[in-house]
Amino acid sequence: MAGFDKVVTSYAEAMAGLEDNMTVIAGGFGLCGIPEGLIGQIKKMATKGLTVVSNNCGVDGFGLGLLLEDKQIKKMISSYVGENALFERQLLDGELEVELTPQGTLAEKMRAGGAGIPAFYTATGYGTPVGEGKEVKEFNGRPYIMEESITGDFAIVKAWKADRYGNCIYRHTAQNFNPMAATAGKITVLEVEELVEPGELEPSQIHTPGIYINRVIVGQFEKRIERKVLAKTSNQLEQ
């Protein structure tokens, strides 16, 4: 079964083939469940003109926000600007094209792309700027707009555990967009916290089958907290 081993030992090998002007679909939500090392490798490679599809663009100086520093991203397809001042500034200055997409629609665009479905209808966005110029069709008396699916040249995702064949499990909320993103790349690279031997993962617990994964790399993760909120103590509540 050695031919099924998808593990690579360097980030350079993991992202080999990434070129300027490609589309990269990235899993994660803010800083939760992001492939930190793969993003760092894209930064190191200095590829330009990228279209990046992700829920948002990380924060200043971390996550996908790193790719904004040298203006490697030409276009973001995302749900919101988030906690990233540089993202906001580049958008307002016209340096970055941004296609804001409702969050559920973005998830379905990835899922549909991975399933080979070219387009779908959704009521979300009808009658708003999101729906301008898009085909409208009525189902059961309700108008829906047609949204095209998304696929990418690369998809980069992060998992908790994976085997050498790419079968993987995401942990809690770090699952977020990763399963959909994993299916939508021509080349999907998985960065994982823990690599286990084939057969160690309970088949019924696997979130993404290895058939979707092309490369696996074991990473080291900083796991920054995007916004820390502390609960008040009982004494503080009494005051």
Automatic annotation (TrEMBL):
Gene3D superfamilies to which the protein is assigned, alphabetical: Glutaconate Coenzyme A-transferase (3.40.1080.10)
Principal EC category: transferase
Lineage top rank: taxon: Bacteria
InterPro entries to which the protein is assigned, alphabetical: 3-oxoacid_CoA-transf_A, CoA_trans_fam_I, CoA_transf_BS, NagB/RpiA_transferase-like
Record's keyword terms, sorted: Transferase
A Pfam family it matches: CoA_trans
EC number(s) given by UniProt: 2.8.3.5
Gene Ontology MF annotations: succinyl-CoA:3-oxo-acid CoA-transferase activity
Protein name from the UniProt record: 3-oxoacid CoA-transferase subunit A
